[in-house]
Write the structure tokens for this entry.
Amino acid sequence: MTRLHKSLLLFAIALGLFTLGRALLYVLYPQQFDQLAFGAVASAFVHGLRFDGAVIARVFAIPLLLMALPLRWLDRRWWFDSLAWVLWLLTLAMVLLLVADIIYFEHVRRHVSYELIMLREDWSFTLHYALHAYWWALLLFVVFAAVLAWLWQRVLRVPLQPMRWAAAQYLALFLLLAVVGRGGVGGKVVEIIDAYADGDSAYGHLALNGVFTTMVFSLNLDQVNHHFFPTEEAVAILAEERTVHDPHFPMLQRYEVSPSGHNLVFVLLESWNFDYVDSFAGRGTGATPNFDALAAEGLKFTRFYAAGQRSIEGVQATLTGIPALKGLPRIDAGIGVSNFTRLGALAERHGYHSVFVQSSDRDSFKIQGVARATGFREFYGKEDIPLLLNYPDPKMATFGWDYDMLQFLKGRLDATDKPFLAYAFTGTTHTPYPALDGHVIREPHGYDDENGYINALHYSDWSVGEFIRAARQQPWFANTIFIFTADHATHYQRGGFLKQFHIPLLIYAPGLVAAGTNDSIASQLDVMPTIIDLLGLSEEFAALGESMLRKQSGHAFVTEGGQSIALVGAHGYVKHNLDRRLEALGEGADEAYFAQLERQLLARDQLSFELLRDNRWAR
């Protein structure tokens, strides 16, 4: 074989591995693609070759062109083989990302996009987590690397033959790489949006691959279109649904309320699904008896949604009222360069003592920096929290122990001699689910399966119950409002698009907030305004959301990774990818309703992006 023939064969092997990855995605998550007919599945596999070939061509381009240089004296194995092993390394890197993407898809039902970019400062934590939670996948990858090396060597052993018409063949290779890398002969370079041109979200997910989405997102990080209307019109659209006090700072709000003097404890519960909490979903899971008892005395929000699909997006939304937007860094990666309302600092200015505690490591995903950036006076993480119980394997809880963290928080609150605002973030319900004592085991335990999740949820629920029982013995309890909600939903919560975001929210404050059920649409973006309203902090603040106590029907703005956004209304939702509408579903809703919902969605996205970019989110 000539150098050109061998080069194309190595390219074909890489292309075959991408197709194998797509097949694994389809086989492992059939519920995500069961609505696709056989013809649509076959079309997605064929269409996917366009995205696979495009990313491989871009990654392989320079080595391939060097390998095929039309010079006779380069018809030598030392030249070709050394560059071929570079291709082997590049192929391994892409396959590693494909594997990570397939694992990640289980949790958020989409491909990776901006995640690797945002993790660039947290590689040590990510590597530690991968070695602990997915050691088996890494071991299989090592075996795969050896097999691929053997296959590579088989190709390289074939004797090299001189290239005829070398210059013409080299030109043909250059043009082929250019066409394949662009994704076709005419038009624009292939983009993520092209995966959805001939089908719905499931079709697009099947056609795409995580290597392509990561590369495209990184190259276009600052080139995302968020402009749909003249700015004045976008403000006017927002004003149709909520009061705009200052058109130049349209996110600014102010509640004319008297200081309540109440304490407030906000607890962000890792991966608590709506459908697994019986007091909300009524499915009889039996995993949350303590929380259910609290719900009987509290105010339940039954149509409440996470703002995103990752913990840091939930933290950002609940702390700042700012959605995670494509093309902008999250709060853990520099959103603090723009002015925004700092909840902890705002409370401190009103005489509150602010405390932030999380069960995982202090600096995991830079939450310590987030707490500081939002003005919390005290911050504690896993390193600060002594273990109170004898766990079967104390070190196995990668994200910490909820009981010990909540009891530690109670101790900090006991020592406070003035009104307090506390923010707590649990972690035991994050995979891998650690071994637990028998009294919280409900199912045969698994470290990464649904049974393990239910057991961890039952333990977390017990921890919440013990926290409230201990708090009731303290003088500050009668004047304290507790808010419980999840950071995001998980893949165990099966159903349509909205199920990916549906989470419970409970305000528990007997004697302070009337018990009941609220069915208005709300989201994590409404949490900060609600806290401000409950505490009577009569000060200007900025948020995309509003106080849930003031909403009549409302909307929920949600972000599906770096790929799409959606707005949930009382009668349905509209999903958009910043270029075109992807889905519009609801009961009893017509096109006029969806058109208005889409206008609101795009106006909110545009204003959020422009105001943060231009530092006009808050004064």
The chain has two domains: 3-219, 231-613. The longest strand covers residues 263-269. Residues 215 and 349 are 44 Å apart (CA to CA). DSSP finds 19 helices and 16 strands in the chain.
